[in-house]
Structures are given as C-alpha cells and as structure tokens.
Amino acid sequence: MEFNSFAEFIAMGGHGLYVWLSYGLTAVVIAWNVAQPVMRRRRLLKEQAQRLRREKKHDAKA
After folding, report:
1. pLDDT tens, 2-52?
2. Mind spelling out the 3-state secondary structure of the chain?
3. Domains in the chain: how many in total?
4. CB 10 within 8 Å of CB 22
C-alpha cells in the first residue's frame, strides 16, 4: 500500500482508528507483560528484606 502524504498514512484508507488503536493496545499489553514480573520481583525482595530484618531483631531480643 502506498500513501501520498502522512495524513493518508495516519488515516489508513479510513481504517486508521482501528489500526492505531490495535497497535496501541498491543503495545500496552506487551509493556504490562514486561512490567508485571519486574514489579513482583521488587515487591518480593522488599518483603524478604523486611522479614529478614524482623527475624534479626527478634533473635537479638531473645
């Protein structure tokens, strides 16, 4: 498919809204799938560090 202008490219022959929403939604889903494990790992490491500090504090008191 050939476009004579950038506006025609964006319009995609009248299907631009569908095309660009599809690309946008795909990008959001991929970003979410990448970000979720990173955020879970950070949360797990933070929880483990807190648990370790509590255990050290508890052992020091005993």
Report:
1. 889 999 999 998 999 999 999 999 999 999 999 999 999 999 999 999 999
2. CCCCCHHHHHHHHHCHHHHHHHHHHHHHHHHHHHHHHHHHHHHHHHHHHHHHHHHHHHHHHC
3. 1
4. no
Q: Half-sphere exposure of residue 61, counting CA atoms within 13 Å on the CB side?
A: 6
Q: What does the CA dihedral 46, 47, 48, 49 come to, rounded to 10 degrees?
A: 50
Residue 1 falls inside a structural domain: no
- What are the structure tokens assigned to 5, written together? 């202008």
Domain of 41, in residue numbers: 6-61
Q: Is position 45 within any domain?
A: yes
